[in-house]
């Protein structure tokens, strides 16, 4: 009967030690994660522009298709 108590106490002690080690390693890994910072950089460089593209749109409404084409061509020449 005495041996049964000693074996039970030893198993309980080993189990508590294993649980303590697991908790400690978990807390250490949480502390290590808070010390890491990931940064994505943004590189900036000034460049002289020699070409610009501006989208321009206009709207023409009418009943006669020929006159609408004429107005579109006139507006394209102006732009």
Detailed description of the structure:
The chain is built from 2 helices and no strands. It is rod-shaped. The protein starts with a helix and ends with a helix. The chain has one domain. Helices cover 58% and strands 0% of the residues. By secondary structure, it is mainly α. The longest helix is centred in the first third of the chain and has 32 residues, at 2-33. It has helices at residues 2-33, 65-78.
Secondary-structure map with pairings?
Layout: H1 2-33, H2 65-78
**First and last CA, distance:** 104 Å
Using DSSP, what is the number of strands? 0
Beta-strand content bin:
under 5%
Structural class assignment: mainly alpha
Give the topology string: H per helix, E per strand: HH
Describe the global form: rod-shaped
Mean pLDDT: 84
Largest sheet: none
Structural domain tally: 1
Rg, nearest Å: 40 Å
Briefly say what this structure is:
The protein is mainly α. It has helices at residues 2-33, 65-78. It has 2 helices and no strands.
Protein traits:
79 residues; mainly alpha
């Amino acid at each position: 009967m005495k041996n049964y108590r000693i074996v039970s106490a030893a198993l309980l002690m080993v189990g508590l030690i294993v649980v303590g080690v697991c908790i400690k390693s978990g807390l250490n890994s949480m502390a290590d994660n808070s010390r890491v910072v990931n940064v994505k950089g943004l590189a900036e460089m000034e460049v002289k522009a020699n070409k610009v593209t501006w989208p321009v749109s206009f709207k023409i409404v009418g009943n006669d298709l020929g006159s609408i084409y004429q107005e579109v061509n006139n507006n394209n020449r102006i732009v």
